[in-house]
Amino acid sequence: MTRIVPVFVTSFPAELEPGHLYVSAQFSTAAHLCACGCGREVITPLSPAQWVLMFDGTVTIRPSIGNWALPCQPTTSSTTARSNGRATSPATRSS
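and the corresponding structure tokens:
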């Protein structure tokens, strides 16, 4: 996957779309489908003790997201989501 689009939501949709990083500030959590393409959901709790989300026109999550409990054992060096240089919300994102 070469591009991840950030989508700010209150709660996650029933079905996550590939290539989207859903961010719920209210619940301090992010979710996306595994970047390897296996389709498994990856849920990331956001907190200074675990993963931190930075927003400056792009969304970056650090440190790397890896889930060794998944059979594919994915990892990314850092997750940065971009959409024409601006993060989007469900009301403004294009499909």
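(Above: one complete record from the training split.) Residues 83-95 have pLDDT under 50 and may be disordered.
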